[in-house]
């Protein structure tokens, strides 16, 4: 027990650390349905996908007892059980769900209910084949597998509404139901007659007249001029990029209205504390996730990684930050893999310790729940080989013990992390319009927009450690540095906001291909970066796809560009050339590759090439320095990830060692261990794949 004096000394040190962490604290008021914490449930939830409909009820208690022993406090159920809930049209059977929820509650487990619309029953698709989706080449799906419905089908939506409403009436006031998952992993668009008619109506609403559409799509090209909206083809490939971009936006709006159809059925019948979400898929770009999340209360995503014993933790970090950016608050991991999946060609398991590493990474990035798919191997079905916590025989598999440890740790750390969230001073912009526009016309096969985003994200994560990934429409004024990796589609409104951000002292970095396209995916009337060229005092003279590396050098050192290089021109005396190309195709020789201009206290930088990691590291360091952004825990080994969650009272640092060897970390100030016993320290050792959670506030203060 430290004496009073040393307590105040420690408190001072904690205050210093808060300063050293240099983090902005913002307070967001949330309604119950928007919060990610629920009365009665622990603040950090360990969960599993459970399919009670697949098992005799007599076995449920056995499974739930094993869950309870692993500190599982959450199950998601029902999302594929339509044929059990509505065995015949209009005939409902929810008794088994009542009993499953009650059984879970007896084991202190709360429930997220899935609406079962990703798997329509056979009676539905047999009687109403028009509800089945149609592929781009006009082939209607057969019944079987899942996701075989048309997201635009008016009739399907009626059935989806009804089953969701019946569920809501039954479970909307059930104290053990904390929220709703709509459908499951929205993915497949449909080209059926309903979708086609709705797309035409959507275009008509957007453009008002066919003349306006012809003008904005520049349809004089290849005799595309339309006389009426019905003539417009419905395609997702090989079309006018304006049409393709609008199709993606239509698809995004259609998934939003698909959500709203069920939300309208659920919301009137449920307690406000019950949230409504759906589970999304990382970088998946089938729809604009920001559009779809407008209708949802919280973000929840399914965290699956590439096959291998380790995972690409920087990619996964970015995907967590992406999910946090959908609602700009904490999120849930609605599914993750207990070791391995069944859908890669070779489904290598994560090595021992990495499942725990992944769970804590999720928490570090702002997840308040981590849920494993799935609890128990199904007795049959397409996923018999998938990783689980429990085998079909009902006994634990080896990874159960590791997940049980995670559960025990969540229980221990819950009170400390409750109400905390990451606070970033740096934002990376993720823009679906731009990602789509580049993918429609890559020009350089290797120019993957996500890979390019990650090239900028990687050094930011290492050096700034807390990074937001947000849409181009998010408020930017709280950020010291904003990086827009390839903001290809730049609307006038977005350009005006970015300009204002820079003029108010923000530091903006634009990556290659930025500001090339207008809102219709047409070429900007000015050269890149289009409406921002005047702020930059520079422009792109020409772009070049590369099939070999081009040397680049300047004050950030020497390196190379691959895949893409733009020949830049400084047009203002205040615009500085940061990097130049060396000898290459003649056009690029000695030409500017990176331009930068100070604007008041802010700055705008244009990076015209896909630079190698070393150059991007050094440029990133200079941008962070200029923007006065500092790592909360500087000098950590490259494979140790630093995550910080905080609130007004304290900061919690989560260190995850992604290496198979032990690591040591020096903290800027002493902190208290949360998972382990012991006093405050500024020296931390991490076991291979080890996790350490540290609190800036001493435990006694935390208990007050
Ligand atoms: C062909 C076509 C042109 C144009 C060029 C582009 O030659 O005839 O219309 O598409 O290819 O290289
Ligand atoms: C997705 C689905 C789940 C399951 C898992 C398997 O995330 O949502 O139903 O199929 O994949 O990895």
Automatic annotation (TrEMBL):
EC number: 3.2.1.23
Enzyme class: hydrolase
SUPFAM superfamilies, sorted: (Trans)glycosidases, Class I glutamine amidotransferase-like
Recorded superkingdom: Bacteria
InterPro entries for this protein: Beta_galactosidase_Trimer (IPR013738), Class_I_gatase-like (IPR029062), GH (IPR017853), Glyco_hydro_42 (IPR003476), Glyco_hydro_42_N (IPR013529), Glyco_hydro_b (IPR013780)
Transmembrane segments: none
Signal peptide: none
Catalytically driven reaction(s): Hydrolysis of terminal non-reducing beta-D-galactose residues in beta-D-galactosides
Family per similarity comment: Belongs to the glycosyl hydrolase 42 family.
Protein name: Beta-galactosidase
């Amino acid at each position: 027990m430290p004496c009073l004096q040393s307590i105040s000394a420690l408190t001072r040190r904690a205050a210093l650390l808060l300063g050293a962490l240099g983090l902005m604290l913002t307070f967001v008021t949330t309604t119950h349905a928007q919060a990610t914490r629920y009365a009665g449930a622990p603040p950090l939830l360990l969960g599993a996908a459970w399919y009670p409909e697949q098992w005799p009820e007599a076995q449920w208690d056995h499974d739930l007892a094993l869950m309870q022993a692993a500190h599982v406090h959450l199950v998601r159920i029902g999302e594929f059980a339509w044929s059990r809930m509505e065995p015949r049209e209009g005939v409902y059977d929810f008794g088994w769900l009542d009993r499953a929820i009650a059984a879970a509650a007896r084991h202190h487990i709360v429930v997220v209910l899935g609406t079962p619309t990703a798997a329509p029953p056979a009676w539905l698709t047999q009687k109403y084949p028009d509800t089945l989706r149609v592929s781009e080449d006009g082939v209607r799906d057969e019944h079987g597998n899942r996701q075989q419905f048309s997201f635009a089908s008016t009739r399907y939506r009626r059935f989806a509404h009804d089953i969701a409403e019946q569920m809501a009436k039954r479970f909307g006031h059930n104290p053990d139901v904390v929220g709703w998952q709509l459908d499951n992993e929205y993915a497949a668009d449909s080209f059926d007659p309903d979708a086609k008619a709705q797309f035409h109506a959507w275009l008509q609403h957007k453009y008002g007249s066919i003349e306006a559409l012809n003008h904005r799509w520049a349809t004089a090209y290849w005799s595309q001029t339309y006389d009426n909206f019905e003539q417009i083809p419905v395609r997702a490939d090989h079309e006018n990029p304006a049409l393709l971009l609008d199709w993606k936006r239509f698809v995004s709006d259609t998934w939003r209205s698909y959500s709203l159809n069920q939300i309208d059925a659920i919301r009137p019948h449920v307690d406000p504390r019950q949230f409504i979400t759906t589970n999304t898929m990382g970088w998946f770009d089938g729809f604009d996730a920001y559009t779809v999340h407008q209708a949802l209360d919280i973000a929840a995503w399914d965290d699956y990684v590439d096959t291998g014993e380790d995972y690409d933790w920087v990619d996964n970090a970015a995907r967590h930050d992406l999910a946090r950016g959908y609602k700009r608050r904490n999120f849930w991991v609605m599914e993750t893999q207990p070791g391995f999946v069944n859908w890669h060609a070779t489904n290598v398991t994560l090595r021992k310790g990495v499942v725990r590493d992944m769970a804590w990474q999720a928490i570090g990035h702002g997840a308040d729940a981590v849920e494993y798919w799935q609890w128990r191997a199904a007795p049959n079905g397409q996923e018999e080989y998938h990783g689980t916590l429990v085998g079909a025989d009902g006994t634990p598999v080896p990874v159960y013990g590791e997940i049980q440890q995670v559960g025990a740790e969540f229980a221990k750390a819950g009170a400390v992390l409750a109400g905390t969230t990451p606070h970033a001073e740096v934002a990376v912009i993720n823009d679906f319009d731009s990602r789509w526009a580049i993918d429609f016309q890559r020009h350089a096969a290797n120019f993957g927009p996500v890979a390019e985003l990650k090239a900028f994200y990687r050094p930011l994560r290492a050096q700034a450690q807390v990074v937001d990934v947000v849409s181009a429409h998010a408020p930017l004024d709280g950020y010291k540095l904003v990086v827009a990796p390839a903001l290809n589609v730049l609307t006038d409104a977005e350009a005006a906001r970015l300009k204002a951000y820079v003029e108010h002292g923000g530091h903006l970095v634009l990556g290659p291909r930025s500001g090339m396209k207008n809102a219709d995916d047409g070429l900007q009337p000015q050269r890149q970066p289009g409406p921002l060229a005047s702020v930059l005092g520079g422009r792109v003279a020409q772009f070049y796809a590369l099939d070999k590396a081009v040397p680049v050098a300047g004050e950030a050192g020497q390196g190379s560009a691959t895949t893409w290089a733009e020949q830049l021109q400084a047009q203002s005396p205040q615009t500085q050339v940061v990097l130049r190309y060396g000898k290459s195709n003649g056009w690029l020789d000695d030409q500017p590759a990176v331009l930068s201009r100070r604007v008041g206290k802010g700055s705008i930088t244009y990076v015209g090439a896909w630079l190698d990691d070393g150059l991007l590291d050094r440029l990133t360091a200079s941008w962070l320095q200029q923007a006065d952004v500092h790592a909360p825990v500087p000098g950590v080994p490259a494979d140790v990830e630093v995550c910080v969650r905080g609130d007004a009272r304290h900061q919690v640092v989560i260190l995850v060692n992604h290496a198979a060897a032990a690591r040591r970390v020096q903290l800027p100030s002493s902190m208290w261990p949360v998972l382990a016993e012991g006093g405050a320290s500024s020296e931390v050792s991490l076991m291979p794949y080890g996790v350490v959670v540290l609190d800036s506030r001493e435990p006694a203060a935390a208990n007050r």
